[in-house]
Amino acid sequence: MRCRSGTRTTARAWTGLVLLPGALAWSAIVLGAGVRSDLDGVWNVTGSYSPDIALNAAGEARREAYDFLADDPHMQCMPASVTRTMITPSPLMEIRQHDDRVEFNHEFMDVKRRIPVNEQMIARDAPIASSEYPHLGRSVARYEGENLVIDSAGIHAGVFSTFQWVGYPQSDRMMTTERYIPDGDRMQARITHFDPVNYETPFTIVITYVRIDAPLLEWGCVPEKACVDPRACGVDAEDE
Amino acid sequence: MGVRLTIRCIASAGALILAGSALAHHSVSTNYLTYEDDPVVLVGIITEVEIRNPHSLITLDVVDNDGVTVEWLAEWSDGNALRRRAVNVDLLKVGEEVTVHARRHRRVEHVVFVRDVVLSDGTVVRDCGAGIYRGDEYYATCEESEAEQGEKDPFILVP
Lengths: 240, 159
Hints:
Oligomer: heterodimer
Shape of chain B: globular
Low-confidence stretches of chain B: 1-26, 153-159
Radius of gyration of chain B: 17 Å
Radius of gyration of chain A: 18 Å
Strand content of chain A: 25-35%
Number of helices of chain A: 4
Order of helices and strands of chain A: HEHHEEEEEEEEEEH
Strand content of chain B: 25-35%
Structural class of chain B: alpha+beta
Mean pLDDT of chain B: 75
Helix content of chain A: 10-25%
Number of helices of chain B: 4
Largest interface: A-B, 43 and 47 residues
Strand order of the largest sheet of chain B: 2-3-4-6-5
Helix content of chain B: 10-25%
Low-confidence stretches of chain A: 1-13, 21-32, 235-240
């Protein structure tokens, strides 16, 4: 679904954001507490897409200023965001569900997230999900039907992606809702991004996965070797 | 890893959209021209091979048309992917003369992204890319994928 740009659409979209907590509480009442579905295992990306993403003027200016050689956090072994971590096609992702928490182990940058399952907690009160990468924010999980839903806040400003949507910015007001929809050995993850600082409307990135039988390998990124050539990462050779 | 899984597809309409979107915005494409647009063929001596993450690296000494030896840096897929896809990187030996087909960096001279490496005996070392994981079928290795699908450009994501 494509959201049209313009004041009315924008106002409606962000009004929806304000109403979101209430809507979530209502859906929790209607749907009940939800059922823990079988998401355990190792998953491989099979694809990702998004409807058009509508940057506002400030967001467009930030994207224009982004230099993919100089500004890519990847080259310092830093995952730009949870979305960036999840859309990379080759590194695997492992999910382990427990009664009180969900664990995500990613090959990419060795990202590990530990997320409490708590229907009462809101994201900004949740613990930091990744102790190694606190800039990924605070997260809390719940179940809606068979879907696992994770809300995140406290995300640091930067770019949400250096892959596919290269240089698209995120502010420290960015909040996300990840929805994991199981279907046997296939899964769809829908990550909705709410960032009124940079975007006209919320937008959703859809990522599809297949469950595979393969071990997770260590990533072991070393900053000194993350960049192929200092010239190719925007570092002036004279500074070397 | 030797098992090929055939799994039914969900949201087939969405899957068709996926391939185009991913192809259009691949991060390798951000940094490198396509091979079809500007093919680079390097004949040189391997001086270093580093299979690592986030990207592997082959360093080559290449003698240019003026007889000057120039160092070229050939970026490649992440080490985990190369190992998982059973690409035989151990065949790449320091000191061996090889022919590298590669994609040219958009901004930086003497930096390329590997398409394949041809050894002096004609053996081709090639990564078939993340495309082997696309679609209804999952192939654990490049060998399985190419046996079933034939050789494909490593950056074309099979829907």
